[in-house]
């Protein structure tokens, strides 16, 4: 099939390569002219045969909204827009409604696979009508792994990105659990080969996963992770997952805790922990840790 691809960064560029390797014709556009096949969005659309299919892979929020609005002016009845970024499902509903007024179809597609997707394929979670998904199915078949990895999550706009959002929420919790286990093994002067312990879990255990494989690869390169700052960003989907849980009265203790742990990583000296230390000192005389005054010693545990 012929397909336009907007956004040729790490994932978008690899997706273009995988699609071309499968025999599809891809016209790519990116603000970086060194990556682009067309020098404008309009020029990319003009090169596509009808019905035109354009896949958007740009950052969520305003960049995606602006791109889809522009495509709404360039495309016509019977054409299709696929949002493969990490958009919030509520944005999908608005974009689908806007495009539908012009007879343009819309598919939201959660994409997972990162930089390894070129080699391994991408897990794809789509939302949209059967008719619209069918228009892009050849590309979906080329992008997904050889076995499994694709689901038409629902016919309502946003179903795909909602499924991907929950996937990322689960990912937050899994990563936090591995990280806490690693810290405990490192902390206690008992286990000599922490990296080998994690490596041994990759076969035969119930906690084996690709995330575990990636953690082992990281600690093999840097055993104590000394080269990495203890700061973890959140992409937004963890927050959206917790927000959706609140709106639907779904208890989500572990995923919520893993999200808040990322916020803690951004504090060099947690104000909340200062308050807790102060209260413990007030009611129980528990020692507080302080910076040393000039010429003196820091206060430490009693």
UniProtKB/TrEMBL annotation:
Keywords: Gluconate utilization, Oxidoreductase
Lineage: Bacteria, Bacillati, Actinomycetota, Actinomycetes, Propionibacteriales
Domain 6-phosphogluconate dehydrogenase C-terminal as annotated: residue spans: 160-293
Record-stated family: Belongs to the 6-phosphogluconate dehydrogenase family.
The protein's Enzyme Commission number: 1.1.1.343
Keyword Transcription (UniProt): no
Oxidoreductase as UniProt keyword: yes
Protein name per Swiss-Prot or TrEMBL: Phosphogluconate dehydrogenase (NAD(+)-dependent, decarboxylating)
Gene Ontology terms, MF aspect: oxidoreductase activity
Cited NCBIfam families: gnd_rel, PRK09599.1
One Pfam family, short name: 6PGD
InterPro entries: 6-PGluconate_DH-like_C_sf, 6DGDH_YqeC, 6PGD_dom2, 6PGDH_C, 6PGDH_NADP-bd, 6PGdom_BS, NAD(P)-bd_dom_sf, Pgluconate_DH
Domain of life from the UniProt record: Bacteria
């Amino acid at each position: 099939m012929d397909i336009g691809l907007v956004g040729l960064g790490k994932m978008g560029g690899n997706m273009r390569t995988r699609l071309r390797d499968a025999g599809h014709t891809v016209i790519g556009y990116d603000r970086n002219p060194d990556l682009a096949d067309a020098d404008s969005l309009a020029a990319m659309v003009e090169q596509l045969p009808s019905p035109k299919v354009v896949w958007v892979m740009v950052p969520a929020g305003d960049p995606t909204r602006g791109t889809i609005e522009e495509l709404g002016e360039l495309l016509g009845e019977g054409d299709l827009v696929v949002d493969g970024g990490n958009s919030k499902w509520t944005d999908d509903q608005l974009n689908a409604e806007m495009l539908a007024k012009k007879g343009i179809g819309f598919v939201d597609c959660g994409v997972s696979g990162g930089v390894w997707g070129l080699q391994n394929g991408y897990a794809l979670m789509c939302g949209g009508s059967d008719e619209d998904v069918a228009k892009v199915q050849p590309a979906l078949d080329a992008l997904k792994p050889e076995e499994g990895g694709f689901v038409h999550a629902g016919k309502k706009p946003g179903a795909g990105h909602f499924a991907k959002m929950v996937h990322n929420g689960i990912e937050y919790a899994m990563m936090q659990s591995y990280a806490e286990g690693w810290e405990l093994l490192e902390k206690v002067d008992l286990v000599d080969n922490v990296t080998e312990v994690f490596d041994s879990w990759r076969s035969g255990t119930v906690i084996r996963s690709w995330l575990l494989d990636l953690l082992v690869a990281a600690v093999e390169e840097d055993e104590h992770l000394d080269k990495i700052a203890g700061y973890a960003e959140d992409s937004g989907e963890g927050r959206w997952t917790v927000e959706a849980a609140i709106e639907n009265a779904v208890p989500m203790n572990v995923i919520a805790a893993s999200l808040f742990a990322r916020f803690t990583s951004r504090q060099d000296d947690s104000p909340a922990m200062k308050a807790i230390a102060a209260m413990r000192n007030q009611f129980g005389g528990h020692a507080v840790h302080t910076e040393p005054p000039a010429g003196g010693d820091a206060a430490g545990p009693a």
